[in-house]
Amino acid sequence: MKKSTAIRARLLGIAVLGGIAGPAHAAETLPGLDAASDAARLAQAERPAPADPAAQSATPVTLSQASTLTAPLSPPAQVSAPTSWNDTYIGYRLGTNFYYPGVRTATGAPAKVTQNIGFLTTTGGFRYGSYAFNVDYLVSNMANPEAGPTNQYGYPTPGSGGAQEVYSVGRVSLSASRIFNRQFSYGFIRDVGLTLGYEFGTKNDAYAERARMFVAGATIEFAVPRGFWNMTLGVRTESNHDGITNVDVHFNPAVHFESSWLYPFRLGPVPLVFKGFASVTGPKGKDGFGVRTTTEFLTRAYLMADVGSFVGHPRTIYAGIGYEYWHNMYGTPASEQPGTTQTSVPMFVAELHF
């Protein structure tokens, strides 16, 4: 039976790193002029600025929980943030409505997959920009089984447990304002720069993913009043392994767009943050089955409460809900694998910041 599966593009949630990541894991993973899955920083945006300018300059800056796919290239104009800062945290996501191309039940229906996802994210700033790195560990239930022994036809049979996957997303954003020591802001643009990144993944199911991706592009950071919002447009290269046809696949370079955002606000006494990422990757040639890929779209967003603030530890413990939507997953056209190339998943998510 022919299965069609192109490789996955994760972006995190970095930081959402997740993003850029994004994802899709991405991520939950990424930084600075944005670019890729959770990247970098609430920066004092949750706190009203003191009326006294002297008091404002003396107020310590907390750079916490700012990643999505990337981190902000530079701090907001009203925040005198330090050149170097870091936010490192671990997290957990749970979703029960994932689908993967070619993954079906014994009757041929699309298999609904439950995944428990743990992640580690670090994001921060340095002299010339910002960075975000994320690693996801994804454990599926038996709806997406690990690969077992091969049968008489040479195809892997289902194993005794759910598939496990490790996926990492990283982004480094270089700020033009920091490098040239002058402002590159104009109107609603706060800064511009260059983002470079990678996505590596491996999975022990029948497809035996070995994803290797590299991203490069120009980034714009917008002058939003709180938090950050970045966009990157560039190119992405991909290679992967197809365990069903047992071939290594080298895709064509593809046009790639990604955006990350983070917006802190309050609803009554509850401090909240809305963060996420979105990415679009153009057609990248044929996959391991000879199927021509199409444009794919991935987004993941979170609405999280600062629950640590209620026990005397603000910006430390976050919990809330998330949502992931992935259209034409891995670039696989819906006509090739009906019902399995699109995922729409509500999720529970929690983070512990160090």
TrEMBL record:
InterPro entries: Channel_Tsx-like_sf
Region span, Disordered: 39-63
Keywords: Signal
Keyword Signal applies: yes
Keyword Signal carried by entry: yes
Signal sequence interval, chain numbering: 1-26
Protein name according to UniProt: Outer membrane beta-barrel protein
